[in-house]
Amino acid sequence: MTVALIDSGLGLLSTTGWLRHLAPELELLLLLDPDGAPWGSRTASFVTDRLFTAAQLAVQRGAEAIVVPCNTATVTAIDALRERFEPRVPVIGTVPAVKSAAATGQGIAVWATVRTTSSDYQDRLIADYANGMPVARVACPGLAEAIDHGDMAAAAEAIADAAERTPKNCDSVVLGCTHYPLVAPEILQSLPAGTTLYDSAEAVARQTLRRLDRTRESHSTMGSIDVVLSGRRGNLPAGAQAHPVGRALAAAGRVPREILISAATRSPMAAPAI
């Protein structure tokens, strides 16, 4: 069984890691778009076109589910993608975990890209799921790009800047960009002790398995991991090697639980060495 994951860059790694951990027998098809990245700065029509092109290729390659682990692509075109491919091929999108964070009753901050932070999409998400609680919107300029390039020094600078602008009463921080879980340990280390990060990668992976009726974990076989870069067969970008889950996926082996970020992860948390 083949599952395709589509994103412009390394934002798909966390969800891919969870799928590889929970169901390593799946054949995974990773469709990245380095020629068009980053999608966050592109027009809606551009993102829709690139997403549909990748999805059509995925179906041609035998994908039985399409996962979109990208907030920009999800809000831009997930409805159109579902209209085109469902019910024959399930389409699973990604939404930041604002609802889970709000359920705790604690102060909330949402870390996201500059464009997402100022978007109507995030405003609607907060209005729908924050239960009327005040939510601090923290833009993280340059962080996603630094993560994509594997530039940990630049990522550390962006994290420190965002942490400085995060209100001290925010005990819950929602990761509003799918790149950010790749540096979750560094984010937690920059925030006050006891802060909880909320991420949606685990939930998206589990929802994918539910849609495929594969809720039982199986470790009897190891599926392949194929990478397509803007329509060309290739390998994970060099930047993936800067992140433990990227290294594990590049090795095409098992992804251990300890390098994955849970739906809710509390500090302190040490950076994994794998």
UniProtKB/TrEMBL annotation:
Leader sequence residues: none
EC number(s) recorded for this UniProt protein: 5.1.1.3
GO biological process: peptidoglycan biosynthetic process
Gene Ontology MF, one: glutamate racemase activity
Short name of one Pfam family: Asp_Glu_race
UniProt KW keywords: Isomerase
Statement: the UniProt record of this protein carries the keyword Isomerase: yes
InterPro entries per UniProt: Asp/Glu/hydantoin_racemase (IPR015942), Asp/Glu_race (IPR001920), Asp/Glu_racemase_AS_1 (IPR018187), Asp/Glu_racemase_AS_2 (IPR033134)
PANTHER family: GLUTAMATE RACEMASE
Protein name in UniProt: Glutamate racemase
Species, as recorded: Streptomyces olivoverticillatus
